Amino acid sequence: MELNARVPDGPIEKKWDRARAEFKLVNPANRRKYTVLMVGTGLAGASAAASLAELGYDVKCFCFQDSPRRAHSIAAQGGINAAKNYANDGDSVWRLFYDTVKGGDYRAREANVHRLAQISVNIIDQCVAQGVPFAREYGGQLANRSFGGTQVSRTFYARGQTGQQLLLGAYQALERQVGGGRVKMFPRTEMLDLVVIDGRARGIVTRNLVTGKVESHVGDAVVLGTGGYGNVFYLSTNAKGSNVTAIWRAYKRGAAMANPCFTQIHPTCIPVSGEHQSKLTLMSESLRNDGRIWVPLKKGDVRKPFEIPEAERDYYLERRYPSFGNLVPRDVASRAAKAVCDEGRGVGPGGLGVYLDFAEAIKRLGEDVVRDKYSNLFEMYERITDENPYRVPMRIFPAVHYTMGGSWVDYNLMSTVPGLFVIGEANFSDHGANRLGASALMQGLADGYFILPYTLGDYLARTKFEKLDATHAEFRKCEAEVAALTKRFLSIRGKRTVDSFHRELGKIMWDQCGMARHDKGLKEALARIPALREEFWKDVAVLGDNEELNQSLEKAGRVADFLEFGELVCLDALERRESCGGHFREEYQTPEGEALRDDANFAHAAAWEFLGPGNKPKRHVEPLTFEHVKPAARSYK
Amino acid sequence: MADAGLRMKLTLHIWRQKRANEPGRMALYEMADVSPDMSFLEMLDVLNERLIAKGEDPVAFDHDCREGICGTCGMVINGIPHGPKRATTACQLHMRSFKDGDEIWIEPWRARAFPVVKDLVVDRSAFDRIIAAGGFITAPTGTAVDGNAIPVSKPVSDRAMDAAACIGCGACVASCPNGSAMLFVAAKVAHLGLLPQGQPERAERVLSMVAQMDEEGFGACTNAGECEAVCPKEIGLENIARMNRDYLKAILSERPASKAGGP
After folding, report:
1. Which residue, B90, B118, B146, sits at the end of a domain?
2. Which entry of A31, A330, A335, A558 is annotated as an active-site residue?
3. H/E element holding A568?
4. A556 located within any domain
5. How far is C-alpha A119 from the chain's CA centre?
6. Strand, coil or helix: what is B39?
7. In a domain, A188, yes or no
8. Between the N and C ends of chain A, which has fewer C-beta atoms within 10 Å?
């Protein structure tokens, strides 16, 4: 396997222009002869499907949800970054590029990040044109706010539901193409295999989640926009259905998996309330603009928050990082929260929480201003915890939120399987070892609206395709494998539910491969996960039949993949013997407890190649060079 | 947070129906130890874990984000779509809204245009077809002008956002004695029609969406107001009044000749 990033030559500002100038084009009259299979309908998938159909390609689009509008992008709250410099505070494409490379702890590809920063400005224009109701100033201009890891205001938002509004914009553009007959939409349909013929991705095998029917779809290219794999930890802020299945099954067909250990733990989530907990809820990072984070100065202080005088509080982020304060990046804020809880100064049940306090903001701005900015988040907090954050400080704790790793892709977003493209959170590309707030929406839409439509066209124009249909032996073989897997799940009839295995895997992952990792713990996880997987295949209980809506069966397939994938995450974490971004190895830290990178040995992306069941995968390396943003100790002090 | 030790005993009556074309029935389940801090769906998770352990088919229900934003979940709880708490989806409803000894009836959305798929799961694809008919602004990728070249006053933007907050869950339809989708359609018509970007297609949009709504078998609006009362995002009835005005204006002027959904 060769990792050729195919980054264009020339100065970084000109690389994307140069690439576009050199791309081959498909004649408009010929585009309808090409079929593109788009899996996933989040920001990346819906925007790509709509844009490709507008260009004239024949698009088939798949999602496991009942409607493309349900994709988990819908839940993104805080905002989307763009280097518009509307705030006149010194922002620029260069600064967004710099902040993102630094924020990612120097583990992203410079050329990709620069392109992302360039495109960011077009995304806002596109979304406004579609009718996305971004927040406005009284003069009618677009409003901005600031987010973690930056010192400018470049975040555009639609109340606390920016992801929802951006996704509805992309969804409506997609439905317009469905209505016009240029996209055929397949809801409640799950991709269960990738079909590779003569070294090229030529189709997928799906299961209809209502009827159980297994079907083949033939195409000239396959695009995966299937999101992140945070649910390998069971508890995360991801939707319950979010899964790794599409990119994992593509991995087994040759699409290398890059940096799976780069997982983001978000600092501001609502703490766990009990054993029944099914997921965790994020409180947008935008709250850190006005909320102050603190814990009691003394260990085991059980007084109510308002009984603790100012002098006996520790605003630890403001103390440790005076220049960024409460707006340090997510990895830094999460580790700091863990540190104070480990010291026994955490608050709430089990001491697993810190305060996010709005008292000062309410005093300074008035309750109405705070309500206008954050009302839906405050209401959500109250619904879940039964506490009123206008009166008592929120309690928050870090939770798994986003995954920077994913399918390895080149500059053109193509995986190591020609014809298989991976976009949005599902690829590993732009965020390095840590993603800054409000950058996920930016990347998803950049990939879908503005990058893939060009790069995919170039691939199609340069490739000569053999005519084939679903009767091809490879399709038949993949269909048979999918059907056999389903049969196997249904035939075990064991005693343990799918969820109980998922919870146990999640606990191993969180304990040994969560906010802090070390050699011994990772090795322990690598011993326990295969044992759990073995038990799963002996004792899992999946009732019912294939030929019906069978939610246990759906989950079984996803959890079976997580049980394999979790092992790769731990292996990747073990082999990366440094700390960077969200990957914190306890053995590698500075005396102040900050992450200690090893640029001499690990300034690279690690891409894992599948070598067959039971064999250790092979670790390949894409070296990363930093010509423009010189790697330095990442300081937010 | 409730007292950690507190547990409630509940009696559940849940609609069970294996397939669309098979008859369904209410089934009885007893829960002895429900924590008030559980969400409603977590309570159903616990029930399902126990059913599977006993070898019984778990209750199928739609859900995904469990944060009240994706619009996937939806069930009628004691006769009210999404249950008793105002402005709250089923996934965000917590068991502290109930008390020890309560009986709870749980049913799917019931509307002609939303056929049952299984148990509490219904088919809401009619909503997608209504959006496909005209619920968009035609803005092909790459054609946009600078975002600030289209100023939108804050009050107008805020009203558009209020309407755009719709999550497409279908509670409005389930609550309506006529099975009408007027609130869902009106919210989209208002969101796009309020904004300057939405003006060129304003007349065509409302005509196409209403035509598709009728074709899907949704009922008419008789101002019962149930939809507004159950909407988890508190979309207001004034949107329906607004849509009626837009519709009237559009039908009285000449209907545009082109078909919706052009490239």
Report:
1. B118
2. A330
3. helix A551-575
4. yes
5. 19
6. strand
7. no
8. C
Domain total in chain A: 2
Same domain for B230 and B130, yes or no, is: yes
Alpha carbon distance A398, A400 (integer Å): 7
**How many residues would you count in chain A?**
637
Measure CB to CB from residue B127 to each of A67, A122, A348 and give the nearest one.
A67
Q: Which residue of B has its CA nearest to A138?
A: B154
**B135 and B110 together in one domain:** no
Claim to verify: residue B76 and residue B141 sit in the same structural domain: no
Identify whether B53 is part of a domain.
yes
pTM over 0.95: yes
Nearest-neighbour CA in chain B from A199: distance (Å)? 32
Q: Final residue of a domain: which of B89, B118, B147?
A: B118
Q: What is the DSSP code (8-state) at residue A386?
A: S
Answer yes or no: do A275 and A393 share one domain. yes
Q: How many interchain CB pairs under 8 A, A with B?
A: 239
Q: What is the interface pTM, i.e. ipTM, of the complex?
A: 0.96
Q: Chain B: residue nearest A68 by CA?
A: B128
For residue B178, the enclosing domain spans 125-252
CB atoms within 10 A of CB B57: 18
Cα separation, A321 vs A308, in Å, equals: 23
> d(Cα A457, Cα A480) in Å, to the nearest integer?
32
**How buried is residue A252: exposed, middle or buried, by Cβ count under 10 Å (0-12/13-18/19+)?**
middle
Coil, strand or helix: which one is A466?
Answer: coil
Q: Are residues B113 and B142 in the same domain?
A: no
A239–B64 CB contact, under 8 Å: yes
pLDDT in tens, B183-225: 999 999 999 999 999 999 999 999 999 999 999 999 999 999 9
**Res. B2 pLDDT band, cuts 50 70 90:** low
CATH of the domain at B220: 1.10.1060.10
What is the dihedral sign for C-alpha B172, B173, B177, B178? Answer: positive
Phi, psi dihedral angles at B120 (to 5 degrees)? -100, 5
φ/ψ of residue A186, rounded to 5? -120, 85
Q: How far apart are CA B139 and CA B198, in angstroms?
A: 10
Coil vs helix vs strand at A631: coil
> Does a structural domain hold residue A607?
no
Q: Is residue B1 part of a domain?
A: no
Confidence of residue B262 (pLDDT cuts 50, 70, 90): very low
Q: Are B90 and B129 part of one and the same domain?
A: no
What is the total count of domains within chain B? 2
User: pLDDT of A487-544, one tens digit each?
Assistant: 999 999 999 999 999 999 999 999 999 999 999 999 999 999 999 999 999 999 999 9
Neighbours of A389 (CB within 10 A): 24
B262 domain-assigned: no
pLDDT of residue A78: 84
Kindly report the CATH number assigned to the domain that includes residue B55: 3.10.20.30
Helix axes B182-194, B238-252, angle to 10 degrees: 70
Q: What is the pLDDT of residues B137-153, one digit of tens each?
A: 999 999 999 999 999 99
Helix (H) or strand (E) holding B105: strand B103-107
Flag whether A327 is in a domain.
yes
Give exposure, B113-140, as e/b (b: 16+ Cβ within 10 Å).
Answer: bbbbbbbbbbbbbbbbbbbbbbbbbbbb
Binary contact (A179, B133; C-beta < 8 A): yes
B129 and B247 share one domain? yes
Contact A317, A326 (CB under 8 A): yes
Q: Answer whether residue B51 is part of any domain.
A: yes
Query: Is residue A23 packed enough to be buried (19+ CB in 10 Å), middle (13-18) or exposed (0-12)?
Result: middle
Query: Domain range for residue A307?
Result: 266-401
* Active-site residue flag, A330: yes
Contact across the interface for A126 and B42, Cβ inside 8 Å: no
Tens-place pLDDT, residues B228-246 = 999 999 999 999 999 999 9
